[in-house]
Amino acid sequence: MISYTLLLLVTIFFGLISVNVGYIGRKNYVTSAEEKMNLLEKDKELIILLNSYAVELQDKINQLQKIANEFRASLEEAKGREVEYLSNPLNSLSLLRQMHEDWEPVEKLIRQPVGQGQIASIEKLRNDLPLQDDLDEATHALIRIVHSYDLEPKDVARGLVDGVQYSGNLSASDCYTLAKSSFMAGRYQIATKWLRLAKNLFNNMPRKYNEVIGLTNIKINLLLARSLIANGSLSTAREILIKDTMFGEAGNRLAQHFYENPPHPTLNLETWESEGVFDGLCRSVSRRQTNESKITRLHCRYNTTTSPFLKLAPFRMEELSLDPYIVLYHNVLNDDDMERLVRMSEPFLERTTVFRVDNRIEQLAPSRTADGAWIPRKDAKPEDRQLFRRIRQRVGDITGLNVHGDRDIQFMKYGFGGHFEPHNDYFDSKTSYVETVGDRIATVLFYLNTVEHGGATAFSKINLAVPTQKGSALFWHNLHGESYDYDERTFHGACPLISGTKLVMTRWIHELDQMFLLPTMLPPRSRNFSKIFSNKT
Ligand SMILES: O=C(O)CCC(=O)C(=O)O
Ligand SMILES: [Fe+2]
């Protein structure tokens, strides 16, 4: 009992505060450019091995063919005049000798294994290739992009993503994989679209290639029929199955069977309640070149007032919303600062997880897909600490709030499809962390790079989308200024990233640090928490 309570407390504390514990050692092929490069290198290596195996095999084939031709030559000579041929003592000896002596080495040659070295190397390399989880992550990321940006599979398959033409296209197997996951998630309409594409692409591929890879027309037709039926198109599904030579008339019964046994979604890709609004906001500022005109700016001015320092070095600020107050400060960090932050975080990046209220464990969740690291580390170099002191000072200057210690600072890196489902940054729960420092009164989100496509921060309850801008910091209060009640309008999330990576650093500012600055500290301390546990970061 004691140990369970202890374990629970430890889990809750570390669970809520440092969410990015698990999945140590697993590579992240989605966020890490380095891992993707490694993968490309391995792909090259494997192709070289396959080619060298094929050359070795071809050598052996050539050798065997030469021997066969040689043997055949004597037979050709004897053809039609066998008696005469064999009456010649030279030919008789030759035949006897060959039959007695030559077949054994030939058999030996046939049995000799080919390309063992290459096979062993391929096997070794394969141990280090992406696993099903990795593929799932990439598949779900692409499904998320298609869903959030309302894209058509046929466009995506030929590289046209949200108005941008990328090089490259999807294969029949890629489309089939996307269809399978969509089907498992209960998204039958989109699964149908992926399968129709898979079918077309499949028919354009060499048959032999498809046979080896394992994708078959039957597989595609079966899933297509099931998706169509789940989507209400029983007759079309029936037609497809009957047309398939494998089923013929039995297709009727099969379609009926699928109809009577509808699929149950087994994959949770989680979509949020305000999905429509949030996705719409994400779409409105998805591309960098169109961002400038889309974002609503109320005021753009220099902040020279919150602290005496700003009189000397004012920050250009854009007030994006007055109530709740949300402001974007420009050029808060310089290139050196940002490079240092990236450098010190990279080695410690791990997948961000969320703490689940229901089973109280840290787990990967489709609602949050990024890598994260809590910084600064305990053993950070003095010059790194110095940078955090400067940042702390700057945050204090621009926000006018007390910023104590270097705690609750998270570096995050998103890869393609990486997103953070809308949430509020406050915990609204009674945890030992909240007891110690209070709730997160405000948030400062630093953009450490400019994303070309996707990845904006969107506030769905106030219709605001903010594209990333390198060096800028987005600031907002999570609690109402007067009452200190939670401000639900600060509900926000990170739109799925479409290309490249997105780097941010979040600095949360705490209630209890404002103790001597804000006299009305009592209400939040006495509030009834609506949740005992939370699934926040
Ligand atoms: O990455 C973003 O745009 C938002 C991040 C965020 O909401 C958070 O870290 O709490
Ligand atoms: Fe947040």
Tell me the strand order in the biggest sheet: 3-4-5-15-12-17-10-9-6
What structural class results from the helix and strand content?
Answer: alpha+beta
CATH fold label of the largest domain: Jelly Rolls
Number of helices: 20
Q: What is the residue-averaged pLDDT?
A: 86
**The biggest beta sheet, please?**
9 strands, antiparallel
**What is the top-level CATH class of the largest domain?**
Mainly Beta
Low-confidence stretches: 1-24
CATH-scheme architecture of the largest domain = Sandwich
User: How much strand content do the residues show?
Assistant: 5-15%
* Radius of gyration over C-alpha positions, nearest whole angstrom: 32 Å
N→C terminal distance: 27 Å
Number of distinct beta strands: 17
Kindly report the oligomeric state of this protein.
single chain
Helix content: 40-55%
CATH homologous superfamily classification of the largest domain: q2cbj1_9rhob like domain
Total separate domains: 3
Which ligands appear in the coordinates?
A: 2-oxoglutaric acid, fe (ii) ion
Shape: elongated
